[in-house]
Write the structure tokens for this entry.
Amino acid sequence: MTTNPLTILIVEDEIITATDIQETLEKAGHKITDIAHTYQEAMATINRSVPDLAIVDIMLEHSSGDGVMVARDLANQYQIPVIYLTASSETETFCRAAETLPAAYLLKPFRHNELAFQVELAYLNRQSQSMQTAQTLFLPINKGLEKIEKRNVLYLLAQGSYVKIYMVDDEKPHLLTMNLGYLAQYFSSADFFRLSRSVLINLNHIARIDGNELLMKSHTSRLSIPEASKTPLIKKLNIVRTR
């Protein structure tokens, strides 16, 4: 099912259930790093191999800590997304689990397709969050990978099958052979605004707005503001209005 196989840790004390989870996820194309039956085993295996994601049961027999403790420590120490898979539907248990900010909370008996889908969504959401918060990017430039600071990007301009990236201190833009729609996902933070289908701007570097045009800092070319984008753009700016 997946085009992006993940490594997954299963924390489950029931052998039959653990095997069922393993078979479901392996059928979906993922790799199981280990099956831990207790808190101690989970912490030991995580030190040997850090997975992309963990499936965690809350009630763990013969364990020094339950699944909530496992999830808390995985999140704090390794920033691993966790999906709870548990028979407990009690409000108190759910509230404890919710404090660890899990990617999902699924009840047993689980549906195989639902588990596979939730695993995919959990990882994609974590990737999306990482892309939004990352301050730097490595771009394929001049047959290598060049590091750029996103805060120094003025704007991105799509031209055919290319995207030009204009930087604060560079006279010439970087030229990338890729689609702006694909590249835009790496600039999805609040600082960036999709001005049009072909232009993505850094709001921090707008120098001036004149009617339906705007000027970016250290750049002489003016960018047109489509009528449909004008109101959403204005709402994102700190504007002092005359009385």
